[in-house]
């Protein structure tokens, strides 16, 4: 596939259309079935990282027979290197609220929540004021839907949707077994749609600009654009909205410092792309997907130190519920340090790679499963830096 050339986009932060009333008025001209069909046709996939088709999630929840349903905005942005949702909530919160209202109308929900990362509580005062105005506006329009906020306590695992539900219900934040899935049995055991902040904005914008306009961007497998949190060894750190489908080489040409040796796509839970793979690595669901974090590293950086930081983060944030994650993260830290100190031979790294394969299969949730992404990509591509 020919990669897209880097193209800047301004859908998310374009203040033309920030007023939610216009979006909601357009939405209620359509039937719930028509809205769900439009989101499915748009090809929009979740922007939190997993990439599940948004329209299908709405469809499953809509088809559930229940008097009580919920819409939840997952604003527990805990992935290292990711800060785009914070910017969206600060700059265009009305677009997020509009997306939640469109979803509620489509699936038949009367109550919605924003689950806000504990470190983002500085946004509370502004968000509460915006939500109060929004709820009053919906009431005047005769729509029976209201939104409120729930704050997290800083646990990375609560970004996983079922651990988030546990937290909202006043329990310890631990992932649940699946099935049942949230659209069948989510918050308080009721059908629930949970979407990322950015995903909800795109649903509102699809209603505003139309499916055809949205599908002009991206590729067949990665429709639309994406907001990237760019950090590291870059002269252009910050939040940037780009068309999906570009390759890492195009990204580095724009955001690198001239000496980029690796790009970590998707935060600690993502993949480390080395220089020799920049041209062949597509940023999108047909290549290397990202929840938004793009960390740029130049030749002065030690990939061993970067990997160590990731592993310490995972070990600290593991909820400890399942053995593969709880024990596996600790063993990986000890193992790479043993190799670096010369206490273990270099081929011991191969045993550690097998351990990550097991963690990917046996861990209960995405935290333990995703440890393999950064570990295997860094160890495989920068093996010489792991050895004493």
Describe this structure in words.
There is one protein chain. This protein has 388 residues and is of the alpha/beta class. It has two domains: 20-215, Rossmann fold (3-Layer(aba) Sandwich), CATH 3.40.50.11540; 303-385, Up-down Bundle (de novo design (two linked rop proteins)). It contains 14 helices and nine strands. The chain has helices spanning 20-27, 32-42, 54-63, 84-91, 93-107, 124-140, 161-168, 197-209, 211-215, 248-255, 303-317, 323-341, 348-362, 366-381; strands spanning 70-75, 111-116, 146-151, 192-196, 225-232, 238-243, 260-265, 271-274, 293-298. It has a five-stranded mixed β-sheet with strand order 6-5-9-7-8. α1 runs parallel beside α5 (93-107), α5 (93-107) packs across α8 (197-209) and α13 (348-362) packs antiparallel against α14 (366-381). The longest helix is centred in the C-terminal third of the chain and has 19 residues, at 323-341. The radius of gyration is 21 Å and the shape is globular.
Notable characteristics:
388 residues; alpha/beta; Rossmann fold; de novo design (two linked rop proteins); four-stranded parallel β-sheet; 9 strands
Helix and strand arrangement:
Layout: H1 20-27, H2 32-42, H3 54-63, E1 70-75, H4 84-91, H5 93-107, E2 111-116, H6 124-140, E3 146-151, H7 161-168, E4 192-196, H8 197-209, H9 211-215, E5 225-232, E6 238-243, H10 248-255, E7 260-265, E8 271-274, E9 293-298, H11 303-317, H12 323-341, H13 348-362, H14 366-381
Parallel strand pairs: 1-2, 1-4, 2-3, 5-9
Antiparallel strand pairs: 5-6, 7-8, 7-9
Helix pairs in contact: 1-5, 1-8, 2-3, 2-5, 5-8, 11-12, 11-14, 12-13, 12-14, 13-14
